[in-house]
Design a protein that fits this description.
This protein is α/β, with parallel strands linked by helices. 52% of the residues lie in helices and 16% in strands. It has eleven helices and ten strands. A six-stranded mixed sheet has the order 1-2-3-5-7-10, with helices on both faces. Strands 4-6-8-9 form a four-stranded mixed sheet. The termini are far apart. The structure holds coenzyme A.
């Protein structure tokens, strides 16, 4: 975990890997180097003894203000597709990552910054955060998975409002539409996020991995094939001795309580 990156910081504390987007002067805008480094960091974390990942932005102003506009300016119809594909691949890698990922949204999460947060499993926002998809105001659309993940997260109506109007929403409104899971005072963001990550670290890693895969697959595949995946993963987990022991322990505790009455 000691590798040096140019645009992010990666550190591990206990079982939690922290990725910090580290371009505060540019509101942590995501450029090609950052995308590449995020991908490399995930590879490093995959091999490390970490059970949960937290992604946040440096400073108090922004989680990320989105794709780096200086790079965006140079795109042509030919290169734009590749640009979109690269971001989609990295965020899909994040979404399908074997360990849970929590976004600690410490300020603006706009455009690609919001798309990054949407690829995480959980989103905790500081009360000062503002979220949105401003692409339409530039004559563009979200291109790093936002048009697909947003409606799956907040429903079609809310997603269309965000994507087609391009307005920013405050943290409390984001909470109401299910765009974030929790809003906390800015100064408590780190502690709250760490507390959630610690709870996830206490869960059995294999069960978490399959829970994540099964729930994610349900949002993509047809309903029936999602149900099939749910059955398959559920059955697979019964191969672990630990699972049976936990179920038995729960049953014997209940029997004991009933006997006590
Ligand atoms: N890409 C590259 N640089 C960005 C950026 C982005 N997406 N967003 C902000 N920055 C840079 C600014 O150019 C500025 O750099 P400079 O000081 O070298 O000129 C710095 O970050 C601070 O931004 P600034 O606009 O001065 O801050 P602000 O507080 O006035 O406004 C925002 C904050 C987020 C409202 C505004 O920066 C903004 O609208 N950014 C673009 C968001 C966007 O459209 N993202 C989607 C891209 S598809």
């Amino acid at each position: 975990m000691s590798k040096c990156y140019r645009t992010i910081k990666l550190k591990k504390k206990q079982h939690i890997a922290w990725i910090t987007l580290d371009r505060p002067d540019k509101l942590n805008a995501i450029n090609a180097v950052m995308l590449q480094e995020l991908s490399e960091a995930l590879d490093t974390i995959e091999d490390a003894n970490a059970r949960c990942v937290i992604i946040t932005g440096k400073g108090e102003k922004a989680f990320s203000a989105g794709a780096d506009l200086t790079e965006l300016q140079k795109l042509t119809p030919e290169t734009a597709s590749e640009f979109s594909m690269k971001g989609q691949q990295v965020f899909t890698k994040l979404e399908t990552f074997s360990k849970p990922v929590v976004a600690a949204i410490n300020g603006y999460a706009l455009g690609g910054g919001l798309e990054l947060a949407l690829a995480c499993d959980f989103r905790i926002a500081a009360d000062s955060a503002e979220l949105g998809c401003p692409e339409i105001k530039l004559g563009l659309i979200p291109a790093w998975g936002g048009t697909q993940r947003l409606p799956r997260t907040v429903g079609l109506s809310n997603a269309k409002q965000l994507i087609m109007l391009g307005d920013r929403v405050q943290a409390d409104e984001a909470l109401m539409m299910g765009l974030v899971d929790k809003v906390v005072p800015q100064k408590e963001l780190e502690d709250e996020t760490r507390a959630l990550a610690q709870r996830l670290c206490e869960r059995q890693p294999a069960a978490l991995k399959h829970a994540k895969r099964a729930t994610n697959s349900g949002t993509k595949a047809s309903f029936d094939s999602g149900l099939k995946k749910e059955r398959d993963f559920f059955a697979l987990l019964f191969a672990a001795k630990d699972t049976i022991k936990k179920i038995e322990a729960f049953g014997s505790q209940r029997n004991k309580k009933e006997g006590d009455c």
